[in-house]
Amino acid sequence: MSTPDPGPTTPDTPDPGPTPGTLPLTDRQWTASLSDPALPALPDLLTDQVPGPLGALVEATGGTVTAVAVSQVTWWPGRSATVSWGAIVEGGPLAGRATYVGTTLEAPEGATVVGADDARVAVWRVPDDPFLPSLSTVLQPEVAASLIAGLGGQLTDPVTRLRAYRPTRRAVIEVTGSGHKVYLKLVKPKRLNSLYQRHLSLEGILPVPEPLGINTDLGLLAMRSMTGATLRDTLEDPAGHLPHPDVIAGIPGTLPRLDRAATVHSAIEAAPRVAELLRHLLPMEKERIDWLEASIGTDDVAERVPAHGDYHEAQLLVENGLVSGLLDVDTLGVARPGDDPGTMLGHLAVWHTISAQPDRVAAYASALQQRWETTLDARDLRLRAAARILGLAAGPFRVQQEGWPVETS
Fold first, then answer.
1. Does domain 229-408 have CATH number 3.20.20?
2. d(CA 186, CA 126)
3. Are 318 and 324 within 8 A, CB to CB?
4. Which of 54, 100, 200, 233 qualifies as a cystine partner to 229, CB 3.0-4.6 A?
5. Is the dihedral of CA 202, 207, 208, 210 positive or negative?
């Protein structure tokens, strides 16, 4: 696979290779050492001891935190931080193992908030997210089945599972029963109707999940399940029948232009914010990060075309060598012509480094790149792929992957 190249270097260009040496801190200590002057609560959220907000929540119910570890972090320096912890609690109604979340975002009325002034933190046990107040209710199997029945579906012996969850933002609940499967997507109320209309307008045009309907009181969209495995899983299966690269390369060109479509910000536009986060995470790599940010530059492409907005190998379902589904169309809007292709190439470049089938992934990515470079500006495409790779660099930190400082570097 051709590596996305932000451009030729010059004799004055800093060496962009990894910085040699060993890290003096463990992963947890490195996470705990991070700070942000604009977010004074951050050290208390990332500590390798019991976080103050979590301890306060548990102690107020008569319990004690006996074990805890940071499991996920969404941090934008100077703006906000949302941290998830896996914790074990003894005593009180919260006793047991669970995931907890703390965020510096302004919490809705009724949320549990600890701290004062700039160090205020809203804290909860999943699934009791105050930003998604219906989540815990909809996870009850009988409630989920009743909702589906009210929308014209039917499930017996229902079982629910929290399939995807982004604290404060959205969640997807998988409901199975009697051989059927339905997904309930919870989003903020202001997005619900537009998301529903988007699915309806795309039916018959793109292979998108069929919407059963919405429940405005609970802020959810119900969708039928789709058949097939993700393109990522198909790439990982040596016997998996992959779609012809022309098919995957051609999908962005088939997307319709929707009414009132939002402009999707490009990875190049996001690069300064991403670079700022990376400088906070790896200050010893500042010179290298500065060089990458400068090499990617600004986004001066004026042309806009319909775009998925997050087009990568986990968004496509594949069955018998054909594309059977396109997921997460809530991001669909208008973007630069190279944005969707650059996103796919950037994701595959990163996935190739951790895949069990790196040669298969690299060959498929190279085939896609060759096709896209026949119709798009090759340098622009590679810059967008490089910007996406930069955006994915913080991924190991976000999920607190073992060895995240090395992986991010």
1. no
2. 14
3. yes
4. 233
5. positive
Asked if 323 and 207 touch (Cβ cutoff 8 Å), the reply is: yes
**Tokens representing residue 78 in the block:** 């100077």
Q: Which residues contact 218 (CB under 8 A, 6 or more apart)?
A: 134, 137, 138, 147, 186
Torsion on CA atoms 212, 213, 217, 220, rounded to nearest 10? 60
Model confidence band, residue 70 (pLDDT cutoffs 50, 70, 90): very high
Compute the distance between CA of residue 107 and CA of residue 82 in angstroms, rounded to an integer: 12
Strands, sheet with 316-319, edge to edge from the N-terminal-most edge strand: 229-230, 316-319, 322-326
> pLDDT of 206-215, one tens digit each?
999 999 999 9
314 CB-near residues (< 8 Å, 6+ apart): 230, 231, 232, 327, 347
The residue with tokens 């089938």 is 357
At 18 the pLDDT is: 40
Distance of CA 92 to the CA centre of its chain: 34
| Residues, the chain | 409
Burial track 142-174 (b if 16+ CB lie within 10 A, e otherwise): ebbbebbeebebebeebebeeeebebbbbbbbb
Type of residue at 80: S
First to last CA, the chain: 21
> Residue 132 — pLDDT band, cuts 50, 70, 90?
very high
Which string of DSSP letters, residue by residue, matches 153-195?
---SS-EEEEEEEETTTEEEEEEEETTEEEEEEE--HHHHHHH
The fold of the 135-224 domain, in CATH, is: Phosphorylase Kinase; domain 1 (3.30.200)
Average pLDDT (243-251) is 98
What would the mean pLDDT of 57-84 be, rounded to a whole number?
98
> According to the model, what pLDDT value does residue 104 have?
98
Q: Kindly state the tokens that stand for 210.
A: 């069929």
Q: Is 333 helix (H, G, I), strand (E, B) or coil?
A: strand
To the nearest 10 degrees (0 to 180), the angle between helices 358-372 and 339-354 is: 160
Q: How far apart are CA 55 and CA 112, in angstroms?
A: 13
Q: Which two tokens stand for residue 60?
A: 């107020």
What strand order describes the sheet that includes 180-186?
159-166, 170-177, 180-186, 220-224, 211-215
Concatenating the DSSP letter of every residue in 69-80 gives EEEEEEEETTTE
* CA–CA dist 114, 127 (Å, integer): 19
Listed by start position, the domains of the chain span 34-125, 135-224, 229-408
Beta-carbon count within 10 A of 252 CB = 21
